[in-house]
Amino acid sequence: MAMKSSTKATTTTKSLFLTFTLLSLLSLSLFTIFFFTSPTTQPTNSFSQNTLLSFQKSIEVYVANLPRSLNYGLLEKYWASNHPDSRIPTDPDHQISTTHFSKSTKYPPYPENPLIKQYSAEYWIMGDLETPEEMRSGSYAKRVFDAKEADVVFVPFFATLSAEMELGSGSGAFKKKAGNGDYLRQKEVLDFVRNSDAWKRSGGRDHVFVLTDPVAMWHFRAEIAPAVLLIVDFGGWYRLDTKSSNGNSSDMVHHTQVSLLKDVIVPYTHLLPRLQLSENQKRHTLLYFKGAKHRHQGGLVREKLWDLLVNEPGVIMEEGFPNATGREQSIKGMRSSEFCLHPAGDTPTSCRLFDAIQSLCIPVIVSDNIELPFEGMVDYSTFSVFVAVSDALRPTWLVSHVRSFSEKHRDEFRQNMAKVQPVFVYDNGRPGGIGPIPPDGAVNHMWRKVHQKLPAIKETIVREKRKPVNISVPLRCHCT
How are beta strands 254-255 and 239-240 bridged, if at all? Predict the structure, then answer.
């Protein structure tokens, strides 16, 4: 009897040990699978498996029911106008017959005028949300039709188009209220959203505005500051505190209505076509720049750089803008150059950077205060050269620096650049932007970035609710 009990106990012990061993091996296997297949925290240079895994989630978006006159109706008004843009010598849109598309078209095309087209993110984001759901399987944003079910509320105002129409009219009324159609449209948008239940619930903190033009929503920036703003950079938003103790600008406190905590940096729309890596040919120019020499504010650096570089061997500095008349010249210049100079202008960045990427011309970025789209998803150091302004302004330093990169290193830059080219593309090639979007394109990357902001946005909304009457969340919550 004792022998049987001992045998039974031994058998039970062996069974428990075997079970424990199997469970341990299973746990180790699951950990290994999870660890090596889950998304890493490292930035990616292409639409990798890690990015695809993120599409198991989505962001739920409600589109505010603004009047059509503030988006597609505004496009209809633009195309119906007989007044060319007063700021450029040749307006391509007023050489195009409106018979190229039906006046009854629900989704008119966006302008080809380069001053407007470079800011066309609003059009492609809206086009994706307007696309029938059965065609949106590759979209990160899931459209919902009840604001209470949404993560964010998208405000479908074509703010850039509105601002540029006023600027292009040459009326001189842009910063005024009287006789300013853009001001009236901005006010209509603000009145609409602020009277909505969705805005009242969140104080606007979960509302998304596309403000890629530095002057978009110019008259009501303070009122929409709590919202999520999609912007190309922070240029034009900062103001310095002139009450700094010693007057030194580097010591001044930057008050801002924008912040990397809540806002998203998005790319300009590139104006030049994509060059495939397989199409790349021998480049004979070392460094290329095309743009205006004389700018304001941060653009003073550009003037100094111009004077330093204009007579350097292997460097081409051209006045102009890649508009309808200079487009071919810009394509040739960027595609035949190893490096493309990207100095700050009126704002820290410009469309030029994204034209360079599409042209596989290695960007040389001379802009100390630049913010770039989708950082954390894209590692710009793998295909761009970053130079401090103080170094760039040293005679002969910049040319010597870019010459120091070996041919092998330059090829690696271009290979990495080719991987990220799709990330900066909005256009889905569909009329009106209605149809499936590139899953690895700019629209999806933008929504993924907004999705990353949601925890902080929701926390801020909750904090605001518990504040006593007439007490608001401290301004420090908007700081970067």
Answer: antiparallel
252-258's contacts with Cβ under 8 Å and 24+ in sequence apart are: 255/475, 256/478, 256/479, 256/480, 257/221, 257/222, 257/225, 257/229, 257/478, 258/225, 258/229, 258/231, 258/234, 258/478
User: In 3D, which of 212, 34, 225, 235 has the Cα closest to residue 122?
Assistant: 212
Sequence letter at residue 345:
G
Dig out the tokens for 360 from the structure.
């596989």
Whether residue 378 contacts residue 355, with contact meaning beta carbons closer than 8 Å, is answered with: no
DSSP 20: H
Instruction: Check the CA dihedral 249-255-261-265 and report its sign.
Output: negative
Tracing tokens 């290329």 back to the chain, one arrives at 288
Neighbours of 95 (CB within 10 A): 10
Strands 264-265 and 254-255: unpaired
Which run of H or E residues covers position 167? Answer: helix 159-168
The string of pLDDT tens digits covering residues 15-54 is 555 555 555 555 545 444 433 433 333 454 544 434 443 4
DSSP-assigned beta bridge partners for residue 142: 60
Torsion of CA 309, 313, 319, 323, to 10 degrees: -130
- 401 is written with which tokens? 């620096």
Q: Read off the pLDDT of residues 117-138 as tens digits, 9 standing for 90 and up.
A: 999 999 999 999 999 999 999 9
Give the N- to C-terminal CA distance of the chain in Å, as an integer.
Answer: 77
* pLDDT for res 53: 36
Contacts (Cβ under 8 Å, ≥6 apart) of 275: 335, 358, 359, 360
State the Cα–Cα distance between residues 113 and 323, nearest whole angstrom. Answer: 8
The tens digit of pLDDT for each residue in 397-455 reads 999 999 999 999 999 999 999 999 999 999 999 999 999 999 999 999 999 999 999 99
